[in-house]
Structure formats: structure tokens, C-alpha cells
Automatic annotation (TrEMBL):
It comes from Mytilus galloprovincialis. One of its GO terms (molecular function) is zinc ion binding. This is B box-type domain-containing protein. Residues 8-55 form the B box-type domain. Gene3D superfamilies: 2.40.10.500, Classic Zinc Finger (3.30.160.60), YVTN repeat-like/Quinoprotein amine dehydrogenase (2.130.10.10). Keywords: Coiled coil, Metal-binding, Zinc, Zinc-finger.
């Protein structure tokens, strides 16, 4: 368009130095036409087929449409064709340079563009995007509303904790103050008794002193002589009494208060709790396809179905006979290259092996292990018989710390940067890497010697009831799963997608449970290769499943895809 429609003056009349208001615009001629010129334009043979646009309609067009040029900048010819390869309009002269670009679209023959497939698809796409925007806006507004509620809920929980702590501290304060008052009263009475005794002695000695002075002033020699004997006897009695007081009652009595280590909030109670901001994938997403068509993708649609998971044996080997009888109770991997096997056979130890079965070293233990995990260059070993949890420096092979418990400890797992431990008939407990208790999780399950952790969830295998549980870190059960194919579940491990691998001790198989706990699949029958699987570990770096048993020296390594 050579000029903007805002001028609204007839282009032909302007060439004659006449000013008339334009009423129409011819896009092919790129000229504005007044009422007179538009009549001639419609009658002229060269332009009678041109479709003009009224100025009022032209004003409604977006500025970018009005600014579209219909003339080639290079050759100053009208655009006649559209090149499909370069996606640009071209004139007749330009067409000579685009002979190999395919079939041109003839611009002058375009008809029905308002209802063309391209326009329909464009409108559908715009509508779909608008719908998505509305859905996303509703989703974000809902998230804002939820955040507001969660904000108040978090603050309310802090207030509740503060109230509970205040009440508990008030109770402890009363107990210790009562004890202080009782002790103070007792010690005060003892000191006051001594003061009374000393005051009695003082009174008697003052009386004796006065009597001596009177005797000296008024008694005869014979009276003095005879009186001294009696006075000496009284003095001796008081001296004896004073000696007893000095020996037994002059001890310095003090009161002092020494805070217990657990009462020093700066050491143990560093905070009321941990605030976690969880950013998880939205329940909706936008996926572009041809013509930028949009669609909603339901949650979990991008996760691998358990029916599509393929497991292939990568390696099967027996541990060297020089190791003797090995009973693998638990296993884990050290980064990418090594595996740890907790051996509770005749030799109590941790066996370090490569993925190909080559033994790297042995770490002797004092207690029989039943679980082993590795984090931050430290091995953590739990022992059911000795009720202990031990940390070992992997590089030096030396014990860093051992904790003795009053209860039998069963399951052990790494939970982020913490250690999660389960005691029989007790709550699950979190420890930091220095084996200092951090928190208790209100989960009480018996007969559950194996657990696993993934993405803020705790997975528990209860072998006696043949049930697999999934709990949140706050102790709330998310789901439980039971199936006839899973009998005596013991070893349990999780892959990168949250799929749960479970070893059936009595069913002698490996099953996989979906992340939502709704279905399962018998993944592997071990009857002919290994009996009673107890130790399972999923190597998330290599996507490999390691399987072992306390009944033999065999190790199985499977590739999972």
C-alpha cells in the first residue's frame, strides 16, 4: 500500500492536483478512489474485475495488514505469485529466480480465503490457544488460592507447635522449679539449724565469760579455785559441741542449675521445622503439533507404563569362593562404579564389588548387618541383632560413629540428605549424616525389614501381610497395594519414574507396581536362577536392577528399559 488509508484522499485526483475524499481502496492498483473515480475504475476493462475495499472497512483492519505491500520493492511490479519454498510474495520478474521452488500460488486467483482450510485451522488454533490460556489462568489462580491457604496452614502449624512447646516448657519449668524450691527449703533448714546451734553456744559462752568476770571481781581465792573446775567442764562441753558443728554442719551448701543439652535450643532445636517449597509438574501442559494445534495432556501421560518396561539380564555371577559363605541381606551402589553388599554370613562384613563381580575389598564389621546405604562418602549399616546404627568412612574404612538403641532396628534408607531408620514397634526416625536425631515420622508397621525412599515418599514392604505401602514424609498413607503375585515382599527399590520394584520372598519373583499404587505386573520369575530374593537395588545412573539373596552367593544384574 503506497500510502496509508488515514489520508483518505483520491489517488487519481491527487495526480491532477485535485483533492477529493476517497471512498474505496483498490488493493491491486494500490490506489484510493473517490466516488467518481471508483465508477470509472469499475467500468475500465483493465480494472473491472478488481475487488475494492470501502474506506470504513479499511479502518477496521489491523495496522500490520494495512501496512502489507502489494508491490515488489526491487522491480516495482505488483506481486503476482506466492513462493511456497521461501514463503514470500513475488512479482513476475522475481518468478524467474524461483523456478525450482515448486508450484506458485497465483495471488489474483485467490478466492474464498475467509473459509479456506488455512483460515479454519488458524481460527481453530487461536481458539485452542485461547482455551488453553483460560485453563492455565484458572490453574494459576487456583494455585494462588491454594498457596494462600497453605501459607496460613503453615503459619497455623508453627503456632500450634509453639503452643505445644510453651505448654511443655511450662510443665518442665514447674517440675524443675518445684525441685529447686524443695531443695532450697531443705538446705535452708539445715543452715538455719546450724545457726540456732551456734547461737546457743554463743549464748552459753557469753554467760560463762560474764561469770568469769564476776568471779574475778567478787569471789575469794577458794571460791575462784573451786569455780574454775566447774567452768572448765562447761567450756569443754561447748568446745566439744562446737567441734561437732564444725565437722558436720559447716559444709557450704549451694544451689546451681545446669541446663540439659537437649534444652539448649541453639544446639538441638535449630528451628520449629523445615519449610519445603515443592514445585511439581502441572496437571496440564501445552504440546505443539502441525499447524501449532494444542491439546491437553493428562497427568502421568509422559511416564513410562509398567506394561512397556522391558527387563533384560545383563550379568549373572557367583561371588568368589574365597569369600566363603555369603548371605547378602542388603545392597546399594556407590555412585556409578561400585556396589556394596551387606554380608551377615559367618564373616560379618561389607563386600565392595564392581558391576562385573570383581571384589574390590572387604570392610569387617563387629555386628551382623541387615541393611546398608551410602551417601556422601559414608557407609551406614544397621544391625538388627545388636540394635545399632554405624557410620563408616568409605575412604579410610574406619568406623566414624556407632549408636546403640534400646529397640531392634529393621529397615534403613537414604532420604535425601538424611538417614531413615525403622525400629520394631516404634516410629520411623530421621537422622542427619552425623547420626543426630532430626525428626520422628508417625508410621508404625511391624514385620517390615525393608524400605525405600523416592521423591518425598516412603515405600515399605510388609512381608507377613503381603502388603506394600506408600507414605508421605508426614506419616500419611498415600496408598497400599496387595496382589496374589507378591508373597512375602522383602526387598524394595524405586526407579527414576517412581515405579516400585518388589522382591517376593515366597513367590520367588520380582514384581513392579505403578507409581500410583493402582496396578502391578509380574516382571521376573526367579525360580530357576535364584531362590528367595531379599536384596534389591535400582541403580538410577545405569538403569540397572541388582538382585541377590541371603540363600546363595549369586548376584543378578538386569538392564531396565
Amino acid at each position: 500500500m503506497a500510502s496509508t488509508f488515514h489520508e483518505q484522499r483520491c489517488s487519481i485526483c491527487e495526480l491532477q492536483h485535485i483533492t477529493y475524499r476517497a471512498e474505496e481502496w483498490c488493493p491491486e492498483c494500490d490506489e484510493y478512489l473517490c466516488s467518481s473515480c471508483k465508477t470509472h475504475h469499475k467500468l475500465a476493462k483493465a480494472s473491472r474485475r478488481h475487488k475494492t475495499v470501502e474506506i470504513l472497512d479499511l479502518k477496521e483492519l489491523p495496522s500490520f495488514v494495512s501496512a502489507i505491500k502489494l508491490e515488489c520493492d526491487t522491480h516495482h511490479e505488483n506481486y503476482e505469485y506466492f513462493c511456497p519454498k521461501h514463503e514470500i510474495p513475488i512479482c513476475v520478474i522475481c518468478a524467474k529466480e524461483h523456478t525450482s521452488c515448486g508450484t506458485f500460488t497465483i495471488l489474483r486467483r485467490l478466492e474464498g480465503m475467509k473459509t479456506s482450510p488455512s483460515m479454519v485451522k488458524l481460527e481453530q488454533n487461536v481458539k485452542n490457544i485461547q482455551q488453553h490460556i483460560e485453563i492455565f489462568l484458572q490453574n494459576r489462580r487456583s494455585n494462588l488460592s491454594n498457596l494462600k491457604g497453605q501459607h496460613e496452614s503453615c503459619r497455623q502449624k508453627v503456632r500450634e507447635i509453639r503452643l505445644e512447646m510453651d505448654q511443655h516448657l511450662d510443665k518442665l519449668e514447674k517440675i524443675v522449679n518445684d525441685e529447686i524450691d524443695t531443695s532450697y527449703t531443705k538446705q535452708k533448714q539445715q543452715v538455719e539449724k546450724t545457726v540456732d546451734n551456734l547461737s546457743g553456744c554463743e549464748t552459753k559462752m557469753n554467760t560463762i565469760q560474764k561469770n568469769i568476770e564476776k568471779i574475778k571481781d567478787h569471789a575469794s581465792e577458794i571460791q575462784i579455785f573451786l569455780s574454775i573446775q566447774g567452768i572448765q567442764k562447761d567450756v569443754k562441753e561447748e568446745e566439744s559441741q562446737l567441734s561437732i558443728i564444725c565437722k558436720e554442719e559447716l559444709n557450704e551448701r549451694e544451689l546451681s542449675f545446669h541446663p540439659a543439652p537437649s534444652s539448649k535450643s541453639g544446639i538441638v532445636l535449630k528451628s520449629f521445622g523445615e519449610l519445603k517449597t515443592n514445585i511439581k509438574p502441572a496437571d496440564i501442559s501445552f504440546v505443539g503439533k502441525e499447524y501449532f494445534e494444542a491439546q491437553l495432556v493428562m497427568p502421568g501421560a509422559n511416564k513410562k507404563s509398567i506394561d512397556k518396561i522391558v527387563i533384560t539380564k545383563n550379568l549373572e555371577y557367583a561371588l568368589p569362593t574365597k569369600l566363603g559363605v555369603v548371605k547378602v541381606a542388603g545392597c546399594c551402589n556407590i555412585e556409578k562404579e561400585l556396589f556394596l553388599l551387606a554380608d551377615q554370613g559367618k564373616k560379618l562384613r561389607i563386600i565392595v564389588v564392581k558391576p562385573n563381580g570383581i571384589v574390590v575389598c572387604e570392610i569387617p564389621l563387629k555386628q551382623p548387618p541387615n541393611n546398608v546405604v551410602y551417601v556422601n562418602k559414608t557407609i551406614f549399616v544397621s544391625s538388627y541383632p545388636s540394635s545399632t546404627l554405624t557410620s563408616i568412612d568409605f575412604e579410610t574404612r574406619k568406623v566414624k560413629k556407632t549408636i546403640q538403641f534400646d529397640f531392634k532396628c529393621e529397615a534403613l534408607a537414604v532420604a535425601g540428605d538424611k538417614i531413615l531408620l525403622h525400629f520394631i514397634d516404634k516410629e520411623y526416625t530421621l537422622y542427619d549424616l552425623n547420626l543426630v536425631e532430626v525428626a520422628k515420622i508417625p508410621i508404625r508397621i511391624t514385620n517390615a525389614p525393608f524400605l525405600s525412599y523416592f521423591n518425598e515418599k516412603i515405600y515399605i514392604a510388609q512381608w507377613k501381610a503381603n502388603i506394600v505401602y506408600c507414605y508421605s514424609m508426614t506419616g500419611e498413607m498415600i496408598w497400599e497395594y496387595q496382589h496374589a503375585d507378591i508373597r512375602g515382599p522383602e526387598g524394595i527399590t524405586i526407579d527414576n519414574n517412581g515405579n516400585v520394584f518388589v522382591g517376593g520372598f515366597y513367590s520367588n519373583n520380582i514384581s513392579i507396581i505403578s507409581p500410583n499404587g493402582e496396578n502391578s505386573r509380574n516382571l521376573l520369575n526367579l525360580t530357576e536362577v535364584l531362590s528367595h530374593p531379599t536384596a534389591l537395588h535400582y541403580n538410577q545412573d545405569f538403569n540397572q536392577l541388582i538382585v541377590s539373596s541371603s540363600g546363595n552367593n549369586k548376584i543378578l544384574v538386569y538392564d531396565v528399559s
